[in-house]
């Protein structure tokens, strides 16, 4: 069964450094998402991406964050200058696409990347 | 704005006993509702979803949930719990806008006693 994959599984970085989290969505999906889960807290929406542009973003997704689909398979989240409070589990998700055959609005989640900022 | 409340942070249940996890949502229109399960160190796996139609939905692993519009609830149930059901369970509501971002509840951690 197709699945969303994420790399790395764990990333440790120093405050102020740039990090790129990578995701490979399911191949025929068109909608992509990033969520994060700070330890002990709820899963929070960051951004959705469709047709090579941001569809919606939360107030968490400030200028320090950016997303990109650099090729036909990868979807990345970049944090330009990490802060301690960026430490969290970051989940990528993908969805078939609005109005397309087989779109059940279900978002398929990857296993997550645990980001630790020291 | 959409929101989800899961009133129970922790639930302990004996193996073989029934389980019910509560979820209340706030959304201005007919919601898309989901239950996800997260085992330790794992991602989020969809258990079941509701979009429309029959308000009692069946999911994987023997779970079911009932949508009650009048109570703004979408409670998850399982008649007989197995030790492997120990995990964290998240209720989520999805917007009907094209982006369909999910808003999650705080989660309920289920512990299964032998």
Description of the molecule:
The complex is a heterodimer of chains A (118) and B (114). Chain A is an all-beta fold and 118 residues long. In chain A, 0% of the residues lie in helices and 48% in strands. Chain A starts with a strand and ends with a strand. Chain B is mainly β and 114 residues long. Helix content of chain B is 0%, strand content 51%. Chain B has strands at 3-5, 10-14, 19-21, 24-26, 32-38, 45-50, 56-58, 64-68, 73-78, 87-94, 102-104, 108-113. In chain B, strands 2, 5, 6, 10, 11 and 12 form a six-stranded mixed beta sheet that branches. A four-stranded antiparallel beta sheet of chain B has the order 3-9-8-7, with no helix packed on it. A two-stranded antiparallel ribbon of chain B has the order 1-4. Chain B is globular and about 45 Å long. The mean pLDDT of chain B is 92. The chains are: A mainly beta (118), B mainly beta (114). At the A-B interface, strand 4, strand 5 and strand 10 of A face strand 5, strand 6, strand 10 and strand 11 of B.
């Amino acid at each position: 069964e197709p699945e969303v994959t994420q790399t790395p599984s764990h990333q440790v970085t120093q405050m102020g450094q740039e990090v790129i989290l990578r995701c490979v969505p399911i191949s025929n999906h068109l909608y992509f998402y990033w969520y994060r889960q700070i330890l002990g807290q709820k899963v929070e929406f960051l951004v959705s991406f469709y047709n090579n542009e941001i569809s919606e973003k939360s107030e968490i997704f400030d200028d320090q964050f950016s997303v990109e689909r650099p090729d036909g398979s990868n979807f990345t989240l970049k944090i330009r200058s990490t802060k301690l409070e960026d430490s969290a589990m970051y989940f990528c998700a993908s969805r078939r696409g609005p109005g397309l055959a087989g779109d059940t609005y279900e978002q398929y989640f990857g296993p997550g990347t645990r980001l630790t900022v020291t | 704005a959409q929101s989800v409340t899961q009133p129970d942070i922790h639930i302990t249940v004996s193996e073989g006993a029934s389980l019910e996890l509560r979820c209340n949502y706030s959304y201005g229109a007919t919601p898309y509702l989901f239950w996800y399960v997260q085992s330790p160190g794992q991602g989020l796996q969809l258990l079941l979803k509701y979009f429309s139609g029959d308000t009692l939905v069946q999911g994987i692993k023997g779970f079911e949930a009932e949508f009650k519009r009048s109570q703004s609830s979408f409670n998850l149930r399982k008649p007989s719990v197995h030790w492997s059901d120990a995990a964290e369970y998240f209720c989520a509501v999805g917007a009907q806008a094209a982006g369909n971002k999910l808003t999650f509840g705080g989660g309920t951690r289920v512990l299964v006693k032998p």
